[in-house]
Design brief:
The chain is built from nine helices and five strands; from the N terminus they run βαβαααβαβαααβα. It is of the alpha/beta class.
């Protein structure tokens, strides 16, 4: 099998992490997340991993070291990984894929999910300290923040669009088909 690098993009709670976990479990993929760099830095300086803090850290790093600082790190990790399937979770900007698409085997997958489902998922998954119990209005406000604004534009650059409004069996089928594409 030739190496495939799967870039996952989509709006908040569209199913990116679910896909990454599935690929890790069922296809022994290595998973890298853009947000892990930010979470590691916030943890190290004893700050909450809130959505707001993640966005502030991202902005600070990009303003200080260049817009593509996180993209370069992810592309380097993906390229150097020896696994046959590598997942880069959390692609948010067109600049994020500039370095990744230079690597042979890169596929951008856009996760498309109904906004109500996304809100339901985010308010119970407890990924960020400020997500639990989030109202729909708060969720919509978060979707309007700088870090989320470019995501919809990435759909036009996706190699594959996954409809994640069905059940898990349907999602797994779509993912299995996507990772076998050459």
């Amino acid at each position: 099998m030739e190496k495939i690098i799967v870039g996952l993009t989509g709006e908040m709670a569209s199913g990116k992490s679910t896909v990454a976990q599935y690929l890790q479990k069922e296809h022994s993929a290595t998973v890298y997340r853009f947000s892990n760099i930010l979470r590691d830095a916030l943890t190290r300086i004893h700050r909450d991993n809130s959505r707001e803090n993640l966005q502030v850290m991202s902005t600070m790093l990009r303003e200080t070291y260049g817009e593509d600082v996180l993209a370069k790190a992810m592309a380097g990790d993906a390229k150097n990984d020896k696994n046959n399937i590598v997942v880069v979770d959390g692609v948010r900007r067109l600049g994020d894929i500039e370095h990744l698409k230079k690597i042979p085997g890169f596929k951008l997958i856009y996760m498309e999910t109904d906004i109500q489902r996304c809100h339901e998922r985010i308010s119970v998954r407890n990924e960020n300290v400020d997500d639990n119990g989030k109202t729909f209005e708060q969720f919509e406000e978060d979707r309007g923040r700088e870090a989320e604004q470019q995501i919809k534009k990435l759909k036009a650059f996706a190699d594959i669009v996954i409809d994640n409004d069905g059940d898990m069996k349907d999602l797994h089928k779509q993912i299995d088909e996507a990772v076998t594409l050459k």
